[in-house]
Amino acid sequence: MTDLDLRSRLATAAETLGLGLTDEQLDRLIAYLGLLSKWNKVYNLTAVRDPEAMLTQHLVDSLSLIPPLRRHAAGQPLRLMDVGSGGGLPGVVIAICDPTTDVTCVDTVGKKAFFIAQVAAEIGLPNLHAEHSRVEQLKTTPFDVITSRAFASLADFTEWTRMHLKPDAVWAAMKGQHPTDELTELATRAPDLSVFHVEQLNVPGLDAQRCLLWIRPTASIG
Q: What secondary structure does DSSP assign to the chain, as a single string?
């Protein structure tokens, strides 16, 4: 499949999600896909090797987060952390689609953080940053939203990142099927946290369940 074919499929998926992406944003997403595919041969950034599969399973999957994230932002700029970002998913996609969102991708693997920094430089994304660190050891200013894509259990995810959350900020955890066991564990380990919304994500072209869990400290409610 050519880059033109991939771009056409990406444009269709973005239109299905109602994203209204510009030609420049579509071009940047395809450029990112090309870099991910190229670097993956040496750096092993993802187990998915085929660019067509990467498009659906990684890029379009990450695009499904954009509508709920925009709804939450309500037109305001956000400072967002993507934990366990790997090859930059969903962080790079967010940075491309919403330039007013300042995105920091955090990963414990140095080569993955280096790749994200290279993506920011090559594609021209001043709102994208990479941090090579364990998130619980990271020194940084707090964030409005902390997200992850199948990074860890909900209990571990919130525990390890809690110190990076602004007052009244939220976690947005991308998961596959509804994580009943993880929710039970979270309620036991962190009874002061509220899972205040769970929504199904529509991923065009992907025949698999996806959901997004919104979480915040109960002290933030009101």
A: --HHHHHHHHHHHHHHTT----HHHHHHHHHHHHHHHHHHHHH---S---HHHHIIIIIIHHHTTHHHHHHHHTT---EEEEET-TTTTTHHHHHHH-TTSEEEEEES-HHHHHHHHHHHHHHT-TTEEEEES-GGG-----EEEEEEES-S-HHHHHHHHGGGEEEEEEEEEEESS--HHHHHHHHHH-TTEEEEEEEEPP-TT--S--EEEEEEEGGG--
